[in-house]
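Cross-posted from the bioinformatics board.
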Amino acid sequence: MISFLVEHRAELWLRLGEHVGLTALSVGLAVALGVPLGVLARRRPRLEGLVLGAAGILQTVPSLAMLAFLMVLLAALPALPLVGRVRSIGVPPALIALTLYALLPIIRNVVAGLRGVPEASLEAADGLGMTPRQRLRLVELPLALPVILAGVRTAAVIGVGVATLSAFIGAGGLGEFINRGLYLSQNRLILLGAVPAAWLALLLDQALAWGEAALMAGPAASPARRRARNAFALALLPALAGGAALALAPAESAQAALAPVAVRAAFTGEFIERPDGLAGLQAAYGLRFPDVRDMDESLMYRALAQNAVDVISVYSTDGRLDAFGVRLLADDKGYFPPYEAAAVIREDALRRWPGAPAALGRLSGRLDDATMRRLNYEVDEKKRAPEKVAREFLESLGLLGRAPRARDGRPVVVASKAFTEGVLLGHMMALLLESDGIPVKRRFNLGGTMIVSNALKAGEIDAYAEYTGTALTAILGLPSTPDRARAFSTVAEAYPERFASRWLAPFGFNNSYALGVRAAEAERRGWRTIGDLKRPAK
Amino acid sequence: MIELRGLSKSYDGGSAFAVKDVSLTVKDGKTLVLLGSSGSGKTTVLKMINRLIEPTSGAIAVDGRDVRSQEIVALRRSIGYVFQRVGLFPHMTVEENVAVGLRLLNRPEGERLERARELLALVELPPDLYARRYPEELSGGQAQRVGVARALATDPQYLLMDEPFGALDEVTRSSLRSAIKGLRARLGKTIIFVTHDIFEALDLGDEIGVMHEGTLLQLGSGAELIRSPATAFVEQLFRKPAELLRA
C-alpha cells in the first residue's frame, strides 16, 4: 500500500490540483454568471420562473450526456475571435458542464437571499434616497450574502462530485483514478480517487461553512467576526488560486527517456492502467505519448473523427471502427496478448444443469472477428436491441431449437459487463441455455471486470463471457503471452481453483486491444504499424 | 415650506380614495402633526411627499418646487425620513447606519464617522457605548433614536416622521418626545409627524391636521381644535383632552 502511494504520489498531487482547479474555476464562473442572473430574476418576476426553470433543467441532464453534448457542440463551433477554436475535449467542455451544474444552487439562493431581505430595510433604503444600484450593493446583497454563500457551498460540493466525471473526456481530476480502477480489478485505484475526492468535498464544505458562520456570527462577536472574515478570505483565496494554477499547468511525464511521438492520444482509463495497456506498450515500442487524455469509450470515436485527437485505444471487434473510418495499426511487435472470448461458468451451475456445456458449446468457433464486428455495429450504430440482434444471429445459424418450456430448478444466472459485445454474448448464452430448457436469470450491464469476476467468485452470478487476455493479466495478474493456446490453457487451469468455474471452448474471435487512427491520416503519414507513429510529423 | 394642493391617491382608478383632496401648508421651522386612526391616509400623505408613493392627482411643493420636477433620488436625500418600522440595516453598525446617507453622497469615511458620533450624542446615545453595536443589540427606543439620527445625518431642512414611536412603551415615548422637542428647538427643522396618539399630537404639533377616511377634517392648533371642533368626529376625538383641560 505504501509503495502504491509513493508510486502514484506525483500523479495524486497533479490530479488533486486539477480537481480543485476545475471545481474552483467552475464555481467562480457560476458565481460570476449566477449572481447577475439571480438579481435579474428577482427584479423581473416574469423572468424568475424562466431562469430557475432553465437552470433546473440543466441540473437534470445526466453528467455524461452533458459532456458528450458539449463535445459535439464545441466541435461544431467555428473559431471565435480572441479565444480561437475552443477545444472540444479536455478542460473547456468539463469547465462549461461544471459551471452549468453549479448555476442552479447559486441562482436559487441568490433569489431566496434577496427575497429574505426585510421589507423595512428596503423601504428605508428607498426613503434614504439610494439608487437601485446602491440599494443592491449596500443593502440587498450584503443581507442576502449568507444565503448566497450557502448556495455556493452546495455548488462546490456538487462540483467536487461531478468533476470526477470530467476524467471521461480527458479533463483530468481525481476521476482518472476512479475510472481506471473501475475498469480494472483495482480497488486501490478507486480509493485513490474516491477518498481524496470525498475528503475534498468535506474540506470545502467545512471551509465555506466557516466563512458562512463568520458572516452570520452574532454581533456580540463583531470584532471577532471581522477577523474571521478576513482570515477566511486570506485562507481561501490562495487555496483556490493555487488549485486553478495547478489545473492549468501542463502535466509532466515521468518517462522522458522514451522517444516522444507527435500525436495526440485518447485512451480509456482501463487501457492506461492495465498491465497489458499503455505503460507496457510504450516500453515495448520504445516510444512515449506526451499528450494522453483519459476518455470514455463512448466519446473517443467522435473525438477522433473530429480531429480532436489522433490515436485512440480500441477493441478490434468494435462495430464503430468502420462507421468512423478508423484504421487499426498493426501490432508488429506482438505486444498485445490474445483476447479470445469464451463462456465461463461456475461448476455448481454445471452440476445443477449438466446439459449447459453442450448448449453453450454450440456457439464455440462460430463467431469470427468480422461477424462479431458486424453484430456490434448493428447495436452500436444502428441502435438495434442487443437481444434481437443476438436472437437473429443464432436463428440464422439454426442454433435455436424449439425452445421447450423451462424445467424447474434454480436458474443459471447469466451476466455481462457493461459494453455492447459483452451484452450480446450474454444474450446469446442465455438464449442457447433456454433453447435447451434450462431456466436462466439475466443480470446484464454489470460495472466492469472487477465487479463481474468478484460476483462470479461469490456465486452471485453463474456464467458470463470473458476474454483470455483480460483474465490472464488483469484478473489473475499473470504475465502476458502472445500465444493464443497458451493463454487459454493457463486461464482454464487456474479458474477451477480460483473461481470454482470452468472455461468453455472459445467462441472463435479475438477481440484484441489495438490502436486506432483516422484512415485518411494514416494514409497521409504512412502509418501501418504502431512503430510508425515514431515518424516525425511533416 | 411644504405645500400640498388637492392631493389625492386612489389605488383602483378613482372609485375609492386612500387620500382625497388634501391641501395644507407647513411653514419653515414648524411642526405639523397628522393625526388619525390607521387607514385614515396619513402615512400615504407622508410617503407621497418624498415620492415613495406617487399621487393620483394634486400637487406637492417643497421649497416652492414641485416634487415631480425633481430627481427622485436627490429629492429623497434632501428630506429626512423616520420610518414606523425603523428599518435600521441589520448588517451595519449603529454608526454605519447613521452615516449611510453621507456614504451615498460619497463623503470621506472620517467625516462620516465624526458626524455619526455627533448625531448619536444629539439623540442622547453616548457614541462610545453605542457606535459599534449592531441594531439587534438595541432596545426599541434606542433603535428609534438611531433612526432619528440617521434621518438627520445629511442635515436636511425637512423631517418626515411616520409614527416613529408607535411600537414603544409610554415611558420611552415620552422621553423620545422630549428629545424631538429639544432637537427642534436647537435645529429649527420643519417636521411633518404622523401619529394616532392624540396626546403626542398635542405635545408636539404647532398645528394638527385631523385625518379620517382619507380626508383632512380640520387643520389648526391644538387649542383651536379643542375649542371649536369643526365636525362631530373631531369633537369626539378631542373630548378626553378637553375634559382633562377643564378639570
